[in-house]
């Protein structure tokens, strides 16, 4: 059995501080950005935005805590949060106070209400400061610009409530984000060399800008400014370490601070020289990106691959011990946990409290040789997550036919400690899939990484926009689509009508007619949503270019094109379908009950669904217990899951934008399947209005009754290699099944078999119903219980009751 070493005292202290944090929002970034925008009122966004981030980096508070060996803060306070006024004006918190929802407490700070899972605060001075910028940003945010005009048809998409786009909601709230930045370029080349490349072009074309040279000049000008911004930010952290060292009485800590100061000064312009500098440089660049724009889900990419060469050199030169390196990795992941920001309660419930979506990938193969690339950092990353019981960042373990047994053992022991981590990603499916679906070269496909929930992306060369150009608008509510299919285009939940009407279920003469109706409505809604996404892509190129990201992305500096303009080597975007198993089970129900077995009429089934099953409980129970369900290795049910997934993929293949021909299909969710359930009318599979849909590509809750191997068999009923936006298969395992070594071996062998049979991804919740019920009754005693929802893991006690009960409802498996 794999054994985890204990963490050091200061790592334990930092972990506790993060667990106990009250996230205090401040106005510092908002004020600096506002003043910068005022000075550059009429400057083009391509230059104005880099100037603003420079001002932020040059003037924001930098912190070095007494216990830190990896530094970097997004805001003025430890684990604090700022406001991005260019997107959200004064933000959402002042209105909470003005409406009396947040109240001032004994500490002199305003706090959100007791009982909310997320603990938030703000000072009266910061509230006053945020209110002071309200008038300036009222008509100047990117969101305001996007809201000023939309293409015809957007109103229909909103009123149908068939995706996250909704009437009254902003069209754009943030930039695309879901991607893997070029950490390896930042670490191995450095800002100084990138800056010189930009300046060289500008010098060579001074007063000689012909044709495309002008666009390139604008880009390189922006690139030089953001390099200066990153350089000054990192140098200020170096200075802060020096100041801290002057006041430090502990000789050992003083020497450490001086070493940190030297390392930070060096990496402000130059390539990293050692393991600590490589890790610190990655954190600094991630921090810089967080300050540059409101990125969601910037992954850390293949952390073990781009840092291992530095650790290897340090170990060979005896500059570092393995224990010291492990503490650096611990500090790296704890620092990334500090980047979580304040969010309204309803957002936190969907995206997960404490989830930064800085997905980190370990394991996998060497890009050049294709050989397994497991190294000591691979184990260190898993050990950090396991021994500290961290639910964030999400860790994906890339596995292949040569993954060492020891690594499998480490990963499965981690899963026993931390629910749903790591995620197991199959190199043998994903690498060929990237080449076939997106045109990746073999080397680049071998170097893929995971981001966000489950999305697949290139490493530092792919503007992947996996969750759409303007998150969170990339998920169609296919349960609502099905409802409109059987109800002549009307959403029974809100009475709104779709332009595509295919009649009522009881008017359809064959099962094929039902399926064709579903595909017609799904195609119309998906293309409507993608059309709006394409519009936001156009807006992004004009108002939200990303010079800070582009300097690290392969293709951008070479071509002189921003990532949002298509400058990256690879370009794509995509969306996700949540709850397709609910749709598949519903289609199976219609086929079985109405057309094959004729156990009820189409009218009876339609009436039962429209009545939310009230008065039709006998029929509902018959469906729940007699109709075959996806997840049980039953070809009758799996046939419909295959058809639904294939149809979804086919529709996505018809979508594209100016920047790319590739709109990727995904099968994942955060906890969106719970949220979608709130707004989805009853479905023919027996699900009632308001109940959660099936999560990701998993069976509907409790419908899989033939064990985990049957779930894996069913999950392979469709070609998973097509779904290059990523997918998730959740299986819950009772802890007793893994209490002995042979249980761990069985789970490993089952996982390998599933992956060998075409499975792309799988993740396990190793937790019992009894434990979760006990945690609901006594949250404090189960504070560190981690579970996997769908696209993120979370501390169970920090989930709302619906998310908790959703996990409890899932089938509890033994081996």
UniProtKB/TrEMBL annotation:
<feature type="domain" description="PFL">
    <location>
        <begin position="9"/>
        <end position="688"/>
    </location>
</feature>
<dbReference type="InterPro" id="IPR051215">
    <property type="entry name" value="GRE"/>
</dbReference>
<dbReference type="InterPro" id="IPR004184">
    <property type="entry name" value="PFL_dom"/>
</dbReference>
<dbReference type="Pfam" id="PF02901">
    <property type="entry name" value="PFL-like"/>
</dbReference>
<dbReference type="GO" id="GO:0016829">
    <property type="term" value="F:lyase activity"/>
</dbReference>
<keyword id="KW-0556">Organic radical</keyword>
<feature type="modified residue" description="Glycine radical">
    <location>
        <position position="791"/>
    </location>
</feature>
<protein>
    <recommendedName>
        <fullName>Formate C-acetyltransferase/glycerol dehydratase family glycyl radical enzyme</fullName>
    </recommendedName>
</protein>
<keyword id="KW-0456">Lyase</keyword>
<dbReference type="Pfam" id="PF01228">
    <property type="entry name" value="Gly_radical"/>
</dbReference>
<feature type="domain" description="Glycine radical">
    <location>
        <begin position="695"/>
        <end position="815"/>
    </location>
</feature>
<dbReference type="InterPro" id="IPR001150">
    <property type="entry name" value="Gly_radical"/>
</dbReference>
<dbReference type="GO" id="GO:0005829">
    <property type="term" value="C:cytosol"/>
</dbReference>
<dbReference type="InterPro" id="IPR019777">
    <property type="entry name" value="Form_AcTrfase_GR_CS"/>
</dbReference>
């Amino acid at each position: 059995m794999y054994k985890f070493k204990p963490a050091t005292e200061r790592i334990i202290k930092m972990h506790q501080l993060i667990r106990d944090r009250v996230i205090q929002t401040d106005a510092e970034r908002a004020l600096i950005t506002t003043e910068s925008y005022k000075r550059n009122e009429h400057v083009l966004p391509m230059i104005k935005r880099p100037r603003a981030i420079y001002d932020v980096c040059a003037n924001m508070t930098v912190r070095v805590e007494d216990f830190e060996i990896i530094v970097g803060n997004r805001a003025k306070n430890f684990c604090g949060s700022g406001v991005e006024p260019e997107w959200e004006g004064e933000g959402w918190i002042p209105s909470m106070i003005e409406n009396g929802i947040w109240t001032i407490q004994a500490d002199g700070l305003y706090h959100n209400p007791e009982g909310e899972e997320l603990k938030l605060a703000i000072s009266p001075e910061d509230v006053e400061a945020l209110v002071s910028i309200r008038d300036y940003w009222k008509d100047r945010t990117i969101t305001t610009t996007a809201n000023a005009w939309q293409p015809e048809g957007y109103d229909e998409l909103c009123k149908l409530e068939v995706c996250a786009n909704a009437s009254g909601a902003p069209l754009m709230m943030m930039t695309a984000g879901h991607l893997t930045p070029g950490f390896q370029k930042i670490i191995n080349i450095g800002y100084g060399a990138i800056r010189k490349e930009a300046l060289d072009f500008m010098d060579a074309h001074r007063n000689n800008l012909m044709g495309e040279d002008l666009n390139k000049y604008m880009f390189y000008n922006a690139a030089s400014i953001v390099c200066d911004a990153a350089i000054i930010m990192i140098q200020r952290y170096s200075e802060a370490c020096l100041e801290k060292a002057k006041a430090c009485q502990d000789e050992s800590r003083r020497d450490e601070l001086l070493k940190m100061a030297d390392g930070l000064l060096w990496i402000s312009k130059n390539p990293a020289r050692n393991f600590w500098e490589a890790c610190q440089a990655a954190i600094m660049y991630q921090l810089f990106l967080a300050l540059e724009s409101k990125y969601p889900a910037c992954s850390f990419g293949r952390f073990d691959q781009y840092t291992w060469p530095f650790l290897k050199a340090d170990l060979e030169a005896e500059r570092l011990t393995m224990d010291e390196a492990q503490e650096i990795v611990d500090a790296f992941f704890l620092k990334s946990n500090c980047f979580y920001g304040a969010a309204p309660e309803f957002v936190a419930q969907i995206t997960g409290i404490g989830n930064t979506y800085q997905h980190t990938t370990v394991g996998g193969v060497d890009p050049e040789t294709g050989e397994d690339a497991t190294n000591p950092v691979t184990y260190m990353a898993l050990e950090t997550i396991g021994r500290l019981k961290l639910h964030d960042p999400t860790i994906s373990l890339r596995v292949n036919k040569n993954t060492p047994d020891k690594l499998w053992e480490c990963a499965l022991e981690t899963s026993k400690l931390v629910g749903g981590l790591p995620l197991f990603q199959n190199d043998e499916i994903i690498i060929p899939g990237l080449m076939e679906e997106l045109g990746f070269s073999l080397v680049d496909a071998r170097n893929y990484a995971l981001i966000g929930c489950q999305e697949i992306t290139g490493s530092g060369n792919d503007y992947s926009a996996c969750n759409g150009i303007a998150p969170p608008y990339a998920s169609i509510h296919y349960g609502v689509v099905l409802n409109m299919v059987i109800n002549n285009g009307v959403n029974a939940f809100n009475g709104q009508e779709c332009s595509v009407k295919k009649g009522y279920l009881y008017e359809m003469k064959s099962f094929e007619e039902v399926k064709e109706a579903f595909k017609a409505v799904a195609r119309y809604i998906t293309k409507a949503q993608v059309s709006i996404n394409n519009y936001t892509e156009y807006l992004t190129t004009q108002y939200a270019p990303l010079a800070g990201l582009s300097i690290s992305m392969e293709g951008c500096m070479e071509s002189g094109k921003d990532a949002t303009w298509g400058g990256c080597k690879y370009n794509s975007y995509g969306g996700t379908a949540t709850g397709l198993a609910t749709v598949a089970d519903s289609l199976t129900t219609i086929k079985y009950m109405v057309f094959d077995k004729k156990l009820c009429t189409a009218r009876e089934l339609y009436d039962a669904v429209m009545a939310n099953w009230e008065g039709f409980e006998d029929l509902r129970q018959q469906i729940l217990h007699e109709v075959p369900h996806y997840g049980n290795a039953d070809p009758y049910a799996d046939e419909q899951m295959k058809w639904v997934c294939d149809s979804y993929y086919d529709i996505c293949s018809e979508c594209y934008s100016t920047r790319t021909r590739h709109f990727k299909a995904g099968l994942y969710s955060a906890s969106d399947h719970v949220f979608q359930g709130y707004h989805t009318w009853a479905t023919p599979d027996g699900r009632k209005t308001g109940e959660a849909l099936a999560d990701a590509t998993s069976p509907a809750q409790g419908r899989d009754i033939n064990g985990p191997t049957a779930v894996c068999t069913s999950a392979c009923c469709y070609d998973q290699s097509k779904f290059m936006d990523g997918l998730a298969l959740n299986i819950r395992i009772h802890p007793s099944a893994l209490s002995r070594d042979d249980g761990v071996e069985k789970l490993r062998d089952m996982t390998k078999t599933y992956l060998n049979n075409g499975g792309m991804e799988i993740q396990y919740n190793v937790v019992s119903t009894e434990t979760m019920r006990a945690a609901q009754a006594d949250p404090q005693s189960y504070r560190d219980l981690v579970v996997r929802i769908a696209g993120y893991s979370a501390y169970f006690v920090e989930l709302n009751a619906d998310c908790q009960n959703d996990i409890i409802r899932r089938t509890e498996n033994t081996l």
